[in-house]
């Protein structure tokens, strides 16, 4: 498996969008100022009750685990629904799938817009660059359903998404057909409304947040490995809430980490981090990850951009301080089977190039602690993941 770093690299674009936000009040802010907000809420509630099929307090979908590197889920797009396997990625904010005729998308499911009665053409171009991978194409609009056909789906009509005309090698080699970004609209390429934000503004969910539970399954492919719960907490798989942390930037799910420590090493300089389901490991500045690796006895391999550790070693836990709480990542989450009797230490050096956050809390963090991503409240919550 390849290390995935699926955070959208849109520093420049995001900055431009943020400027727009400070100047133009959101429709909600405008309605609140004019006193029309309660009326608007009632109107939305009436719409919601009318459309019985769309009434969902919260809905959850399972994800499958690929070697603890990648978690994928099912969606359908269009009418009738065309199925896709996508990465549910909190490090980006656009949904895209391959379009029929995409020459670089061999072996992947392709969306046939002529076969959907609800497809609406848009035609605007998009292109997205991730930490690993890139894709481009044109935009369209259709009904997106979270979850597989025949299950309790979250149905989001009129969702704008990308139809990929070409994808790069990183994405060609990936098991997923496409990527579904779950972060804020301000991070979205072309300022497209992300599918879940669209669901929230259509009042399809009881709460404007979702909870992610991921499991450690070792070196196996396509096995059940977690649950995404839209519109609620996950009381089945997660313990009670430890704390909410306000976001320092509502683009990624970005917040402040007070410090990081492992064994005899500690760094107590506050830094901005993001919680990213689409990144396989914990990423941070190399001067710090090197110092941490030295303490645990892991060695850096430039070819892989990763640290290797003796599979029989017992590296000490990594402790991350957020607010006044300490979150401990155990050996179980941080020692990842690499095959051939080798093991990764699931931390990697990542350079954001001077923009935004400096750490990525990827899947090992989320396997240890369920993360509740609050789009409405601009905060993130943590609770113990059962079985971690
Ligand atoms: C997605 O759908 C396929 C085909 O129906 C199924 O085999 C697979 O288990 C589903 N994945 C998840 C995560 O539910």
Automatic annotation (TrEMBL):
Q: Which UniProt keywords apply?
A: Aspartyl protease, Disulfide bond, Glycoprotein, Hydrolase, Protease, Secreted, Signal
Gene3D superfamilies membership: Acid Proteases
- Looking at the keywords, is Heme present? no
One GO cellular component, as annotated: extracellular region
Spell out the subcellular localization from the entry: Secreted
> Which Pfam families does its entry note?
Asp
Q: Does the keyword Metal-binding apply?
A: no
> Where along the chain is the active site annotated?
89, 276
State the organism of origin: Acrobeloides nanus
State the superkingdom.
Answer: Eukaryota
Supply the name of the protein.
Peptidase A1 domain-containing protein
Family, similarity comment: Belongs to the peptidase A1 family.
Q: Which CDD domains match?
A: pepsin_like
Q: Which InterPro entries match?
A: Aspartic_peptidase_A1, Aspartic_peptidase_AS, Pepsin-like_dom, PEPTIDASE_A1, Peptidase_aspartic_dom_sf
Signal sequence segment: 1-15
């Amino acid at each position: 498996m390849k290390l995935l770093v699926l955070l959208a690299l849109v520093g420049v674009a995001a900055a431009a969008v943020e400027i727009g936000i400070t100047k133009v009040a959101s429709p909600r802010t405008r309605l609140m100022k004019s006193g029309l907000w309660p009326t608007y809420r009632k109107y939305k509630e009436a719409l919601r009750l009318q459309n019985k099929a769309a009434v969902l307090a919260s809905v959850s979908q399972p994800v499958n685990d690929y070697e603890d590197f990648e978690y994928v889920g099912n969606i359908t797009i269009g009418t009738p629904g065309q199925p896709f396997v996508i990465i549910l990625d909190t490090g980006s904010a656009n949904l895209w799938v391959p379009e029929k005729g995409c020459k670089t998308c061999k072996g992947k499911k392709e969306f046939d817009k002529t076969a959907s009665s609800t497809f609406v053409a848009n035609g605007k171009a998009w292109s997205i660059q991730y930490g690993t991978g890139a894709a481009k194409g044109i935009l369209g609009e259709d009904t997106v359903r979270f979850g597989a056909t025949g299950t309790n789906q979250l149905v989001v009509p009129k969702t704008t998404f990308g139809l990929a005309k070409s994808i790069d090698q990183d994405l060609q080699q990936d098991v997923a057909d496409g990527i579904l970004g779950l972060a804020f609209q301000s991070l979205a390429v072309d300022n497209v409304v992300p599918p879940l934000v669209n669901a929230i503004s259509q009042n399809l969910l009881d709460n404007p947040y979702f909870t992610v539970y991921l499991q450690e399954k070792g070196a196996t492919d396509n096995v059940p490995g977690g649950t995404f719960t839209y519109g609620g907490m996950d009381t089945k798989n997660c313990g009670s809430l430890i704390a909410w942390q306000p976001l320092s930037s509502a683009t990624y799910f970005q917040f402040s980490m007070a410090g990081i420590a492992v064994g005899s090493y500690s760094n107590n300089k506050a830094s901005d981090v993001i919680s990213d389901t689409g990144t396989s490991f914990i990423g941070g500045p190399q001067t710090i990850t090197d110092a941490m690796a030295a303490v645990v006895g892991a060695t850096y391999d430039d070819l892989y951009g990763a640290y290797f550790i003796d599979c029989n070693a017992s590296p000490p836990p990594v402790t991350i301080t957020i607010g006044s709480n300490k979150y401990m990542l155990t050996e179980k989450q941080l020692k990842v089977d690499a095959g051939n009797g080798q093991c990764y230490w699931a931390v990697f050096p990542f350079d954001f190039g001077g923009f935004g956050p400096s750490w990525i809390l990827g899947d090992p963090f989320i396997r240890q602690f369920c993360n509740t991503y609050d789009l409405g409240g601009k905060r993130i919550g943590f609770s113990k993941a059962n079985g971690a």
